[in-house]
Amino acid sequence: MRVFVTGCAGFIGSNLVDRLLGDGYDVVGYDNFSTGRQEFLAAASRSPRFRLVREDVLNSSALLEAMAGADLVFHLAANADVRHGTEHPRLDLEQNTIATFNVLEAIRANGIRRIAFASTGSIYGEPDVFPTPENVAFPVQTSLYGAAKLACEGLIQAYCEGFGLQGIIFRFVSILGERYTHGHVFDFYWSLRQDPGRLRVLGDGHQRKSYLDVQDCVDAMLLVVEKASGKVEIFNLGTDETCEVNDSIRWITQHLGLSPDLEYSGGVRGWVGDSPTILLDCSRIRALGWAPKVSIQEGIIRTVDFLQANPWLVESRA
Amino acid sequence: MRVFVTGCAGFIGSNLVDRLLGDGYDVVGYDNFSTGRQEFLAAASRSPRFRLVREDVLNSSALLEAMAGADLVFHLAANADVRHGTEHPRLDLEQNTIATFNVLEAIRANGIRRIAFASTGSIYGEPDVFPTPENVAFPVQTSLYGAAKLACEGLIQAYCEGFGLQGIIFRFVSILGERYTHGHVFDFYWSLRQDPGRLRVLGDGHQRKSYLDVQDCVDAMLLVVEKASGKVEIFNLGTDETCEVNDSIRWITQHLGLSPDLEYSGGVRGWVGDSPTILLDCSRIRALGWAPKVSIQEGIIRTVDFLQANPWLVESRA
């Protein structure tokens, strides 16, 4: 079986590729390396069952050609920057919405029947119900990122109905672990490396969120692909626990042996469109027999260890 | 106050323009006349308070310039063809999703604070709950049209949060009345004009849907614009009654004095992505003091009368 992975050089994408190759699949990876890293494909590149296509998802003809012969498409390529969405609204439109349209058109033209898509818990906006189930009340979007992922989900669902595809949609919490390249742990680690005596914290530190280790995430994705048979299958992916930003700061600074002064920007949100609480109801994926193996605390520590072991990645940040 | 109306030469748009002019507003209308009709602007064009810009919403710079000085934007321009979505998926992406992005960017660049948007009950897909309220369980899309309108709604909501706009979203049932240019009444009337002895019906004729007269629709839109003050205001617009396709056929043929043989294509849906039942919970708009004045039966008869009085429109169909 041949699996096509967009965003193959990204954080989740490269971990998925390694697992797929380990499981014996042929893998074609597609990445424009805008945020992807060649280093993350070091192991994959040594496999004769891996082929890399260095191209953009906005290049429809390259995408169409690269996807030929695939049985399943994992579409992970995205602009994953939630926080700075309002600084460049077009990025979400192009890299998320239009990119997903291109992927679906290439799937259709190639006669492929299945797509698995990385969506986000951000599409719930600021829900009233916690843990938030997949079928919560029709949400109102609060971020351009969430809005773009919603647009992608809608497109996938309509293609499933209109063209007989199967669409698997994963709504992730924030993911942690090896090859983590952006998010609050990266920001805090990077900042403490610049100035160990001071840490600027967005919001009041009481934002309460769930996180998931990347290996647990990949486990869940592959399990769903194996077991889910419905036309449109939507799964929240997260842990049943949350931590406060302040918990995370305590774990990170203790692990690093630091005691920085904390400076809070204030307010209950880290930025415009930030959701103060993220906790997804994951009973649907748990019913398939999956459970996360890594706690949030352990995931955050592992992520810090990864960043410490890979200074090149931290130094590459402008 | 200056009001900007995209899709000003369309069915709903031109009726809205006439009402706005009658109410004393300055109106700038924008239309590419892909489906809009110069004839629908005959009255408006005689008003010194109306200015027409003949351009496409995909032309960002023309849109930006035309919108200058507006206080409120009604964004009605759209590809409104639900039924043939799978024949041209790019049309919904471009004319609905990207077009709405362009409108929002032009609003932002012009410092305008309010947008009112024509969405659709089709974004509920095939709901389990009737009448369907605005906050029904997170739906799954079944048409490219619905998916595109969902994308537009998400964009508008995210812009409201990110850039401090007010967004008013109307989820319409099918609209009937003067200047009606497409939909089942048009199709049936056109077909009976070709061959009064035979009528081909998509589905089994038992699809049960709600319809709303265009004047009732415009009344509701203007009332919401006047009264709703929340950041994101979403209103279903429809009647509390439904009719079967078979009811509609009976009313139309009796009114025309015809007794055609009916040939059903079969199945519970008229086409892929058609929702067999559409009935929206309109208690939210009714709580503002609005109620429709025209029944579905009356609306269908009036629509037939309009088509009979305007053979040029019916003849213009290829």
- Total strands of chain A: the figure is 14
Question: Which chains make the largest contact?
Answer: A-B, 40 and 40 residues
Q: Give me the oligomer status.
A: homodimer
Q: From the alpha-carbon coordinates, what is the Rg of chain A to the nearest angstrom?
A: 19 Å
Largest sheet of chain A: 7 strands, parallel
CATH first level of the largest domain in chain A: which class? Answer: Alpha Beta
* Unreliable stretches of chain A: none
User: Which structural category do the helix and sheet elements of chain A fall into?
Assistant: alpha/beta
Strand order of the largest sheet of chain A: 3-2-1-4-5-6-11
Helix and strand sequence of chain A: EHEHEHEHEHEEHEEEHEEHEEHHH
Span between N and C termini of chain A? 40 Å
Please identify, by name, the CATH architecture of the largest domain in chain A.
Answer: 3-Layer(aba) Sandwich
Percent of residues of chain A in beta strands? 15-25%
CATH fold descriptor of the largest domain in chain A: Rossmann fold
Instruction: Please give the count of helices of chain A.
Output: 11
CATH homologous superfamily of the largest domain in chain A - what is it? NAD(P)-binding Rossmann-like Domain
Describe the global form of chain A. Answer: globular
What's the number of domains of chain A?
2
- Give the proportion of residues in helices of chain A: 25-40%
Query: What's the overall average pLDDT of chain A, rounded?
Result: 96
Task: Give a structural overview.
The structure is a homodimer of 318-residue chains. Chain A is α/β, with parallel strands linked by helices and 318 residues long. The first copy, chain A, has 2 domains: 2-175 and 213-237, NAD(P)-binding Rossmann-like Domain (Rossmann fold, 3-Layer(aba) Sandwich), CATH 3.40.50; 176-210 and 240-279 and 293-315, UDP-galactose 4-epimerase, domain 1. Chain A contains 11 helices and 14 strands. Chain A has helices spanning 11-22, 42-45, 60-66, 89-109, 144-163, 184-194, 214-227, 245-256, 283-286, 296-309, 311-315, and strands at residues 2-6, 26-31, 50-54, 72-75, 114-120, 166-172, 174-176, 198-201, 208-209, 211-213, 232-237, 243-244, 261-264, 277-278. Chain A has a 7-stranded parallel β-sheet with strand order 3-2-1-4-5-6-11, with helices on both faces. A 3-stranded mixed β-sheet of chain A has the order 12-9-14. In chain A, helix 3 (60-66) packs across helix 4 (89-109). The longest helix of chain A is centred in the first third of the chain and has 21 residues, at 89-109. Chain A is globular, with a radius of gyration of 19 Å. The model of chain A has no long low-confidence stretch (mean pLDDT 96). The interface between A and B is large, with 40 and 40 residues.
